[in-house]
Structure formats: structure tokens, C-alpha cells
Amino acid sequence: MTQEHSELLREIAGETLEQLAFIFSYPDEMDPEAIWKETTTGCRVAFNGPQQGELLLNISTAALPELASNMLGLDEDDAPPEDQQLDALREALNVICGNLLPRIGGVDAVFDIQAPEIIDADAARGLVKEYLNAPQGCASALLSLDDGECQLYLRTENSG
Amino acid sequence: MPLNVLIVDDSSVMRAMIIKTIRMSGLDLGDIYQAGNGQEGLDAARGNWVDLVVADINMPVMNGEEMIDQMKADPELSDLPTIVISTEGSATRIERLERKGVKFIHKPFTPEIIRDSIHALTGIGPTETGESDDAGTF
Fold first, then answer.
1. Cβ separation of B58 and A84 shorter than 8 Å?
2. Which residue of A139, B61, B76, B83 pairs with A6 in a disulfide if CB–CB is 3.0 to 4.6 A?
3. Could you report the predicted ipTM of this complex, rounded to two decimals?
4. CATH of the domain at B115
């Protein structure tokens, strides 16, 4: 199941980044730990429903200006302010999560998605460790972008 | 006649994307109002002449579905054409919204979907001088 969810996560994250922000991604062959050598920004979103859990996105901070400018349709050299870059990241994760959950739980499943929350790199790194050590494991997708990397981790458990 | 549009979404980036996409759809736009949640959306709809509401569902303070319910209960707003643009993927919830008379658009969206949905709801189509609508997905 984890492998299946990992493939779905990679597919949906890649499609969302491309359709929402014209950012093309490729499966990342690098050591997952390598991302922590650069400056990163994390974002998490919790959900409840037939399954509950959390989706965590950790991305190179260098990729945020392009993400936000492309979503806003600005020129490449016209980087939006930081608050809009973070808003763009929250929205991107929201769309990824919203498209992922019906693929996991089925189209009739009703999920409540909480508001995405920005977290710093230390908090993101701690959560990644926690997810990876969880007894049920976690799905993950590691993507390479033009301006860095993007990692996603999905932790789920059945409700009730 | 220019279309006055109210955009209700807690993400300023998404509001900007929706506005840009509607402009790209070639519609004759009048005033555009923005609100960050359902309560602000209701206040803006009651305080301005609005021809179309475009709203998200998951928002703080008051979500989009509650805002739509309150609009339906208000004789001044009950017939206001409303489009929901959301990441919502549950067929159950989408059908419930559609039964309330709203048009549902899933994120990410294209200018064509926005244009066609507005046309279906209001009967208003692109002007001849409108911008190109072939601009990818948002």
C-alpha cells in the first residue's frame, strides 16, 4: 500500500506543480538526506475522514519565487514578496492533498482538509523522521525541480 | 453589460489566479471584489452590486458552503449565480453543492472551464475584444 501511495503521490504532485505553476519535476535519485544541506521550507496539512493523517511537503526555498510568480502569472524576474511565496506553497499543497485523497479513499469518501501550515526546516525534518519511523510506515515522493528539490511524505491511519 | 464579480478565497494567491483567469477568458468585467472568508464574502455581496460569486469551500471563520446557505436564505442574494472552485474531491459533497444550484470547478482549472461555467450560469460569453483563452491550466 505504501508503495502504491508513493507512486500516486509522485504522480499527483508532479501534475499539480505542472498544471498550477508550470513547474516540471522529475523523480529524484539523490539521497533524501541531501536536501537538508540547503535552505528548505516545510508545509503540512492534516486531514480527517475514512482515513486520517497528514501530508508534509518540504521544498528548497530557492524554488518558491518561481512557484509563486508562475501561479500569479508574473515575469520571471518579478519575484513576489515572501508572504505570497508562502501562500502559494500552502495553496499548492492544498491542491495536491485535495487531488490525492479521492484517489486513496475513493470518490465517495468525504474528507475534511485542514488549513495548510508553514513550518520551519527543523520542524519538517523532525516530522519526516517521525513519519518514517511510524509502525505503519509512510508514502513518499522525492522530486527534482529546476531550482532544487521537493519532498512529500504522506502518513495515514484508518479512522475510528 | 460588464460583469461585477466577487471572489471569495482565503488564499490571496488563488484570488489573484482566479481574477487573472477570468480576465483571460475574454469576459467583459466590471468591478472585482475580494473576500478572505465566507463572512467577508456575505458582507461584500450585501454591500455591493455583484453579478457573480466565485468561492472556495475550505475557509476559516465561515466556509463556502455555509456562505452559500446564507445567500440562499437571503431574498436579495438567493438568485446570485455562484461558482465554487475547490480542491474538494468527494462526489457526495460536490453533488450536495450542485443541488444548491452552484457550479463546481475542481482545482487546478483552465480558463476555458471558467469561461464555460460563467456562460452556463449567466448566459454571458466572451467579448470579441477579449484576450486569448488558450493559456494552460491554473
1. no
2. A139
3. 0.86
4. 3.40.50.2300
